[in-house]
Design brief:
Homodimer. The chain is mainly α and about 140 residues long. It is built from five helices and no strands. It starts with a helix and ends with a helix. About 20% of the residues are buried. It binds protoporphyrin IX containing FE.
């Protein structure tokens, strides 16, 4: 029962986290277009707020995930899918950190990449979401 409540909160905040992981790089796509320079000040505010919300989502997702690991008493570490999930979470945290570094560059008007690069950068969280959810729910191995 308790485990199920923790899992529900875990998934709710995972959605909050991903809302940011999907939309922050989208803002970077627009922010990387010189023709939008009249809106750069607004983009900076939107990016800062979205990053704050997605970081809260990430921390709460991780805390409630760790609570489930503790509740499970270590049995999850016997499963291959769980090890793989943890590896992909490490990549996701790396991506989150990359978003932070890029935000600081935009804030200093020091962005060096074009909008096409951000369009590709924007695809990574979709791939990670699909694979992590399949691992967590299907538990294929
Ligand atoms: C941030 C670190 C994370 C930790 C420590 C963690 C840990 C866990 C644990 C221990 C469970 C319960 C597993 C079970 O009982 O079978 C779980 C469930 C789940 N996690 Fe995570 N997780 C994390 C991040 C994520 C992310 C990023 C996603 C999505 C992309 C995700 C999606 C899910 C889903 C959908 C479930 C429910 C699976 C079910 O129906 O049983 N988790 N997580």
């Amino acid at each position: 029962m308790m485990y199920e409540w923790v899992k529900a909160i875990h998934v709710i905040f995972m959605v909050t986290w991903f809302a940011g992981l999907f939309y922050l790089p989208r803002l970077y796509v627009y922010h990387a277009m010189p023709e939008n320079s009249g809106s750069f000040a607004l983009f900076k505010i939107m990016e800062r707020r979205l990053f704050a919300i997605m970081t809260i989502g990430a921390v709460i997702t991780a805390v409630f995930g760790i609570i489930m690991i503790v509740q499970g008493g270590g049995v999850l570490f016997q499963s291959g899918w769980f090890h793989f999930k943890l590896l992909l979470i490490a990549l996701l945290i790396g991506y989150h950190h990359a978003c932070y570094r890029l935000m600081i560059k935009f804030r200093n008007d020091a962005n060096t990449r074009d909008h096409r690069w951000y369009r590709w950068f924007n695809e990574a969280p979709s791939v990670l979401l699909i694979v992590i959810v399949i691992l967590a729910i299907v538990k294929p191995f």
